[in-house]
Write a structure and sequence with these properties.
By secondary structure, this protein is α/β, with parallel strands linked by helices. The chain has helices at residues 48-55, 78-85, 95-98, 105-115, 131-141, 158-170, 188-205, 216-222, 242-245, 250-260; strands at residues 7-17, 23-33, 37-41, 63-68, 71-72, 88-91, 176-180, 208-213, 225-230, 233-239. The protein has 10 helices and 10 strands. The strands form 2 sheets. A 6-stranded mixed beta sheet has the order 6-7-8-3-9-10, with helices on both faces. The structure holds adenosine-5'-diphosphate and magnesium ion.
Length: 261
C-alpha cells in the first residue's frame, strides 16, 4: 500500500518494545499533512520521544511502516536511508545538549550545510557558499544577533541556544521537522517567543511539523491536528481547539484537569 501526496508523513501500526520488555510504542498510526503541524501530547513516559526517534529512524522498531513523502523508510537500506533522512531535522528539548560545547556557534550552525553540499535552500540563494554570510542570514531568520557566531554555547542563554538549533534545523530546507518538547527547558517568558518564532517559520518556509509537548496549550497553539498518547497508545485525536471544547476521551479530560490545576 502507498500513501497520497497530501499525506506527507504516514506511520502505520508502529510498535517498539525496548530490550527491557517495556512496550513504549504500541500500534501507533498517524498522518501529517504537507505544510501542517501534527501535535502530540502526553505525560512524561508515554512514549512520545521513542515514537519521534523511530520516525527519524534513529531507533529500531519491531513492527510497522513509516512513509515520508511516499517513500517507505522502513524498507530502505542504509545508504538510501541516510539520503532520505536528510529531509528530516529535529529540535530536542535541551539545546545545551544539542550543541557541542567545544564548537563555536557558527560551526554548530553550519554543520548540516557543510555536510550536505547539494542542499540549496531558496532563502540562501546567492550566498549558499559564502559560509559566514549564509550563517548570518540563518541567524536573521531566528532573530539572533550576528555577534554570537564566534561565541561558544555557554555564552548564550537557553532561549538563544534554542534559536541556534532551530536555525540549524531549517538551514537545509528540510521537509519535516520533529520538535520534541522544544520549549520545555526554557523560562516561561521565553517559551511563547520561541513558539511564535516556530509558527512564523512554518508559514514562511511551508514546513511540515511534528510537534511534541506535554503542554496542552502549546500543542493547541502550534497544531492543526492533535493526538493524545498514553502508555504507548494513541487514545484520542482531534482538531485544533476541539481539545478544549468538545466531549473528550476520559484520559484527555484527566490531562486537561491536571493542566488547569
Ligand atoms: P516520553 O517522551 O513521552 O516522556 P519516552 O519515549 O522517553 O517517553 O519513554 C517511554 C517509556 O520507555 C518510558 O517508560 C521510558 O522509561 C522507556 N524508555 C525510554 N528509553 C528507553 C531505553 N533506551 N531503554 C529502555 N526503556 C526506555
Ligand atoms: Mg520525551
Amino acid at each position: 500500500m502507498t500513501t497520497s501526496s497530501l499525506e506527507f508523513l504516514t506511520v502505520r501500526n508502529l510498535t517498539k518494545k525496548y530490550s527491557t520488555g517495556h512496550l513504549a510504542v504500541n500500534e501507533v498510526s498517524l498522518t501529517v499533512t504537507r505544510g501542517q503541524c501534527l501535535g502530540l501530547v502526553g505525560e512524561s513516559g508515554s512514549g512520545k520521544s521513542t515514537l519521534a526517534r523511530c520516525i527519524l529512524m534513529l531507533e529500531r522498531f519491531d513492527r510497522g511502516e513509516i512513509w515520508l513523502d511516499q517513500i517507505p523508510l522502513h524498507s530502505l537500506f542504509h545508504r538510501e536511508l541516510r539520503r532520505v533522512q536528510r529531509k528530516m531535522q529535529v529540535v530536542f528539548q535541551n539545546p545545551a545538549a544539542s550543541l557541542n560545547s567545544k564548537l563555536k556557534i557558527i560551526d554548530s550552525l553550519m554543520e548540516p550545510l557543510d555536510c550536505q553540499p547539494e542542499a540549496q535552500p531558496f532563502f540562501l540563494k546567492g550566498i549558499r557558499d559564502q559560509r559566514r554570510q549564509a550563517a548570518e542570514a540563518l541567524l536573521d531568520m531566528v532573530c539572533l544577533s550576528h555577534k554570537y557566531l564566534d561565541s561558544y554555547p555557554h555564552e548564550l542563554s537557553g532561549g538563544q541556544k534554542q534559536r541556534v538549533t532551530i536555525a540549524r534545523a531549517i538551514s537545509v530546507e528540510p521537509a519535516l521537522i520533529v520538535l520534541d518538547e522544544p520549549t520545555a527547558s526554557l523560562d516561561v517568558s521565553v517559551q511563547a517567543r520561541v513558539l511564535n518564532l516556530l509558527k512564523d517559520l512554518q508559514q514562511q518556509l511551508k514546513l511540515t511539523y511534528f510537534f511534541i509537548s506535554h503542554d496542552l496549550s502549546a500543542v493547541n497553539f502550534m497544531s492543526h491536528h492533535m493526538m493524545v498518547m498514553h502508555n504507548g497508545c494513541v487514545v484520542d485525536r482531534c482538531q485544533r481547539d476541539s481539545l478544549f471544547s468538545e466531549e473528550r476521551n476520559p484520559y484527555t479530560q484527566q490531562l486537561l484537569h491536571i493542566f488547569e490545576s
